[in-house]
Design goal:
By secondary structure, this protein is α+β, with helices and mostly antiparallel strands. Helices cover 38% and strands 22% of the residues. It has one domain (3-220). The protein contains 6 helices and 10 strands, in the order H-E-E-E-E-E-E-E-H-H-H-E-H-E-E-H. The strands form 3 sheets. Strands 1-5-6-10-9-7 form a 6-stranded antiparallel barrel. A two-stranded antiparallel sheet has the order 2-4. Helix 3 (96-109) runs antiparallel to helix 4. It starts with a helix and ends with a helix.
């Protein structure tokens, strides 16, 4: 990710954290990132045949992308959802082991997920497997999350290959936030929960970002004086 995009993304997450949980987060997903998606066949925990890939849209008016961590609900593109809350992975219920696996998955395979439809679907399948079985053995044919015999065969085999040696892969520096959707009495029903991942800037980059914020504040004060 380019420096400018990293700084903007980090600033956005900092702003969201500062806002707290006092008000709901607004989410509108427009489709699959780059149009990349492929069919998946899920048997457990819900028997469905969705398209799998990385979502893109807006979060509180800012562009972002995210992975689904909830196959029990549906997502409708083009709908503005106002019943989301941004929470930490721990608050959502992810263990440190699961967060570590997400870190390794993003560090080693996120760039590859943008190479093809099959890789985009494989990455989403891997995220689902970690979500539902990340505290034990990673196997898309067993456990709380299981694939059926259909779906895109290349995406399936790629996901299995990534997951098989994931625990031994290197970990990078990523910050994760979960957008948790809940039903609202008299309002919107719960939709899919989303995992948002942002690479943590290197110390030198972070220093540049903070310096940039300082210059912005100085310029603002000069305009007001």
């Amino acid at each position: 990710m380019a420096l400018g995009k990293t700084m903007r993304a980090a600033a956005f997450l900092l702003a969201c954290a500062a806002a707290g949980a006092a008000q709901a987060d607004t989410v509108n997903m427009s489709g699959f990132l780059g149009g990349r998606k492929a069919a998946a066949d899920i048997d457990l925990p819900r028997n469905i045949t969705p398209y799998a890939g990385e979502f893109t849209g807006t979060w509180n008016g800012n562009s972002f992308s995210a992975m689904c961590v909830d196959v029990m609900h549906n997502m409708t593109f083009g709908t503005t959802w106002t019943n989301y809350s941004a929470v930490t992975p721990a608050a959502y219920g992810f263990s440190s082991a699961q967060v570590g696996l997400f870190n390794r998955l993003y560090t080693n395979y996120y760039a590859s997920s943008h190479a093809s439809n099959e890789n985009a679907a494989a990455f989403q399948i891997a995220v689902w497997e970690i979500t539902y079985d990340g505290n034990g053995a990673l196997d898309v044919d067993a456990g709380s999350f299981e694939l059926g015999s259909g779906g895109n065969a290349t995406a399936r085999s790629t996901a299995m290959g990534w997951l098989s040696g994931l625990a031994a892969q290197s970990a990078g520096a990523w910050s994760f936030t979960v957008l948790d959707s809940t039903g609202v009495a008299g309002g919107q029903n719960a939709t899919q929960d989303l995992l948002v991942a942002i690479p943590v800037p290197e110390p030198a980059t972070y220093a540049l970002m903070l310096a940039g914020f300082g210059l912005m504040g100085l310029a603002s004060r000069r305009r007001l004086s």
